Amino acid sequence: xKVLILNDPEAAIERAGDIVSGAVRxxxxxxxxxxxxxxxxxxxxxxxxxxDAGLLSFAGATTFNLDEYVGLAPDHPCSYHxxxxxAFFDRVDLDRARTHLPRGDVADPQGEAExxxxxxxxxxxxxxxxLGIGRNGHIGFNEPTASLGSRTRIKTLTDDTRRxxxxxxxxxxxxxxxxxxxxxxxxxxxxxTLLLATGEAKAEAVARMVEGxxxxxxxxxxxxxxxxATIVLDAGAASSLTLRSYYxxxxxxxxxxxxx
Length: 260
Ligand SMILES: O=P(O)(O)OC[C@H]1O[C@](O)(CO)[C@@H](O)[C@@H]1O
What we know:
Layout: E1 2-6, H1 9-26, E2 31-34, H2 40-52, E3 62-65, E4 67-69, H3 80-87, E5 99-100, H4 109-122, E6 128-131, E7 153-156, H5 159-165, E8 178-181, H6 184-189, E9 192-197, H7 203-211, E10 229-234, H8 244-250
Pfam families: Glucosamine_iso
Pathway: Amino-sugar metabolism; N-acetylneuraminate degradation; D-fructose 6-phosphate from N-acetylneuraminate: step 5/5
Keywords: Carbohydrate metabolism, Hydrolase
C-alpha cells in the first residue's frame, strides 16, 4: 500500500488527478472505476480542467461506477446517475455508451447487480478503481460487516451513512435505505486502486484502513490485500496515522518515489 500525504486538500486532489491522468494516457482504452460523494467533486473538476486544456482525452475510456441507490431513477436529482452526468460525463469527451452505473429503479435490483458484475467482466475488468471512504470505513456502499469476498449486490445502508448522505435529500426518512454496490472482492479485482480522502472527519477511518486489522468491520482495510493500492491523503485525513512520519519519509511531498 502506497500512502501519499499532501499538505492540503488541493495538493491531494492534484496528486490524485496526476495518477488518473497517467493511467488514461498510458492506456487510452482504459476501464475506469468511478466513485461519487463530496470528496470526488474537486477531483472531477481537476480532470475536466486537464481535458479542457487539451491535456487529457477520455474518448477511448470505459467507466463503471461503484454504486447507485435502490429506488432512484437515473433522472432523480439525488441519483448517482445525475451526479455523474453533472460532475463529469457531460463535461468531457467520454462516449456515453461506455459509461455504466447500476440502475436503481429496476423491478429486480439483485438481477441488475449480477448483470452489472457480468458487464464489468465482459469489459475486461477495471484497470484503475477510484475510491472514497466513508467515516465508518465503507468503500462503495460496502458497509461494515460486508464480506471481503462480496460481489455486486444490494446492501442495507447504516444509519451513520444515511445521516452523512441526508444532506442531499430533504429528510433522513427520504434518504434511501438500500443501494446496489460493487463488492469488496470486485474492487480487489481491479488492476490498481486509488483511494482519495481529505479532511479530519476521515482520519479515524483512514487509520483503521491503513494500520488497523484486516476486518469486515472496516471494509476499506481489504485494500491491504491489494498489490497495487495507492492512498492519497491530505494532512487532515492523515492526522490519526501512527506511522505518518514513516510514510512522509518514504514518499516525501506525496511523491511516489521509493519502495514500500
Ligand atoms: O466523499 P464523501 O461524500 O465523504 O463520501 C465518501 C464515500 O461515501 C459514498 O458517498 C457513499 O456513501 C461513496 O460514494 C464515497 O466514496
